[in-house]
Amino acid sequence: MSKFKSSINLAFYYGFLIFISLMAYFFVLSLSGIEYMSALRYLNGAFLLGGLIIAVRKFLKDHNYNLQFFQGFKFGVLTSFFATVFYAVFLFVYLNIDNNFLTNMQENENIGQFITPISMTFVILVEGIISGLIFTLGIMQYYKKYTYPRVATQNSDEKVDA
Question: Where are the domains of the chain?
Fold first, then answer.
C-alpha cells in the first residue's frame, strides 16, 4: 500500500512541477506580448514530454529499474493527468480574469465564436491527456528494457519468465 501511495505522491509532485513550467512559459509569452500566437502552444508538449521523461526515470530509479511495463505507464499517465488538470484549471481562472486575452483569441482564431473559458479548458484537458498517453507510451517503449519480464537476447543464457 505504501508503494501505491508513494507512486501517487510522486506523480502529483512531478505533475505539479510540469504545471509550474507550463505556467512559467505562459507568463513568459505574456510578458513578451506573443501569447496570442496559438502555434506557440505546441511547445507545451515539449514541457510535458521533458517532465514526463524526468518523472518516469525517477520512478524507475526508485524501483531499482525493476517493475512491470504497465506500472511505469500508469505512473506516466497519472503524472500527465495531474499536470494537465492543474494547467486547465489555471487557464480557466486566467481566462475569466483577463478578458482581453479571451477577446483577442475570439477575434483572431478561425473558430473564435466557439472559444469560451469552458471550451478552452476542455480542449486543454483533451490535448494534455492524449499527449500524455502518447508521450508516456513512447517513453515506456524506450525504458522497456528495464521492465520485467525481461526478454532474453539471442546470445544470452538467461531463462525467460513467462
Answer: 2-147
